[in-house]
Amino acid sequence: MQKNILSPSGAAHVLYEIDGHLYTTFVVARLVGMPIPRSLELAWGCQVPDANKKYTAVSAAWRSLWKTYELDLMRVLHSIHGGKQEQVRKRREDLKQLITEAIQRGDPDWRTGLMIHAYGDSFAHTFLKMGEEHSYEPPFGHAGHGHKPDKIGNFPEKYLEYVAGLYAALGGQGDPPTALDGLIKIVEDNDGNNSKISSSIATYAAELGMTDEGSDSVRDRLLKDITEKDVVETMAAMEARFAKD
User: Fold this and answer.
1) Can you tell me the distance from the alpha carbon of 76 to that of 80, in angstroms, rounded to the nearest whole number?
2) How far apart are CA 242 and CA 245, in angstroms?
3) Which residue of 50, 188, 211, 234 has the lowest C-beta tally within 10 Å?
4) Could you tell me how far CA 207 lies from the centroid of its own chain?
5) Residue 159, phi then psi, degrees to nearest 5
6) What is d(CA 10, CA 188) in angstroms, rounded to the nearest whole number?
């Protein structure tokens, strides 16, 4: 049987892509102490914006030329907003706080996962210009740089800053570098080897309890159940926070 690239057993074939979203979210949630079902819900909520073609940055880029909703998908859900360093940093802090508040309120985990996607992309979708960090701009995003920004091994410092922030946002206790030692070791030991980093994170997720059957079940349900209305409402909540001084 052909293996699903969106499952742990198909990890060797995956090309912050699925390793930075699905697998990383699951791993960090488990390290925080969340049970497997909640961790899968968060992880697939985070992956839906890239797994459902209605919400991907690539498909939204072209439609955004004439539709405001698609432009919002890029600016909000995929954190391609064109801001300069101050705006990039504020966006990250806002999203981190939104995730923390969602966890504390007991919001649906898939909805929190959508915010986690935006948080991860707020690190991945940036570039340096004259020594300062800038967000890519819609509608073309990082098209000029291909998939390079989405590869963990190309910018390991940003990835490790992201996972430390996510660990704290999800309620992790103690020193993040210690708790996240497994992820740190994967990134450092493989030193820019993106394929190895990706497969190693997927293997780590499997070691922490992600199975093909469990993952596929949550994937199928959320790809069907998360509606455009859900996405619009979640983006509106994020935008309301971004608008605050």
Assistant:
1) 7
2) 8
3) 188
4) 20
5) -60, -45
6) 23
Residue with the two structure tokens 């996510």: 166
| Amino acid identity for residue 208 in this structure | L
Task: Output Rg (C-alpha) for the chain, integer angstroms.
Answer: 17
Exposure letters 145-184 (e unless 16+ CB within 10 A, then b): eeeebbbbbbbbebbbebbbbbbbbbebeeebeebbeebb
Count of C-beta atoms within a 10 Å radius of residue 69? 13
C-alpha–C-alpha distance, residues 67 and 91, integer Å: 23
With a CB cutoff of 8 Å and minimum separation 6, the contacts of 145 are 127
Whether 15 shows a pLDDT value over 60: the answer reads: no
Tell me the torsion sign for CA atoms 194, 198, 203, 209. positive
> pLDDT digit string (tens) for 110-164?
999 999 999 999 999 998 888 899 998 876 555 455 566 668 989 999 999 999 9
Q: Is the CB of residue 170 less than 8 Å from the CB of residue 39?
A: no
The DSSP annotation for 43-94 comes to: HHHHHHHHHSTTT-HHHHHHHTTT-HHHHHIIIIIS------HHHHHHHHHH
Q: What does DSSP assign to residue 13?
A: G
